[in-house]
Amino acid sequence: MDDSDATSALERAKERDADDELAEFRERFDVPDEYYMDGNSLGPISTDAADSLENAVSEWRELGIRGWTESDPEWFHYGERIGAKLAPLVGARESEVVVADSTTVNIHKLVGSFLDARDDDQPPGVLANDLDFPTDHYAMAAQLRQRGLDPDEHLLRVESADGRTIDADAVVDAIEENDVGIVFMPSVLYRSGQLLDVERITEAAHEHGAYAGFDLAHSVGVVPHDLHDVGVDFAVWCSYKYLNAGPGAIAGLYVHERHHDVEPALAGWWGNDKETMFDMALDFDPAPDAGRHQVGTVPVLSAAPLDGALDVVRDAGIDAIREKSVALTEFMIALVDDRLAEHGVDVGTPRDPERRGGHVALEHEEAYRLSEALRDHGVVTDFRQPNVVRVAPAPLYVGFEDVHDVVHIIEDILETREYETYDRQSGGVT
Question: Known catalytic residue: 133?
């Protein structure tokens, strides 16, 4: 790209930032680096999240045990109340959502519960895919083993044809060709950022008598969902990525209201009906809604930041967030094509916005060393095997000029081969 084209791109970025209705939301965040493009791994803290956490700490200090009933909001129904606050983001009814535990624990609970809920003459398979985040497979395999089923036989995987994406036709074919009891897929693939067709997969699963479940970790807070009307049976997600609720923040789960009679495979006191909880009966009396899938006492201090963080998302509006996210990733892809393709960078993310989540996967043979060099230029991304730098322009605190600048920095690093001054990957957190 020549100088005039570069100037034109920068001017366009500034113009779009000037017209951006969400630009003011950056002021509500403490962004730790000049170019923080890793919100798909951990979102930064907002003043709203910090305030709700500090409020919970103050109530603990001032009220002690009385905080369970006298705090504002009271802690006893924290999981249900924040779940109701989350419900609009995933297109669910308030009774269908609760915050609890971690994403992996929630996968264990719901996959196990829905395996037990089936009435099959022959043990059915669980259909996943070979580009999943590993924890999903660990949990599914463990739940199968606990029921005497060999994961090598019963954990089925849809193969990727290109190493980047999962074709919806291949998912449908796998459902039709196998004895599938549960289809469990991510809404967005963690490496490439592909957005899967949740509605089509759910319809295909139901047509063949299978449950449809989804891991929304890489879409909740940046992509609107319509879980109830689509008929998704269950779903899980974390809240520390695009929801910006903090490291290790409490996770969430959804169970369609038609399944509120499904017995929890992992029962615990906090899933008891709140009305009978303190009867201290030894027989489990499950809550009448998704709350029955809670296990242990709600961890107030890891749930409180989510309470405030959701205020930011609510004020911005999930549809406006999605619109800006698509525009940011579209702008980034165009700049990569113009400036970085000649340096060996490929876009591994679908170009169709209806098939793209909130981040862009940049593929390069020196992706690891490139990501290390970027950090020293104030650009925080992350590396994923074997050759991907994930760049997430999160709409609440990233602008179009930020995207322009990041691509320019990458171009300089590649042109000067600065990445060669960094050691090759030797393990560790990336």
Answer: yes
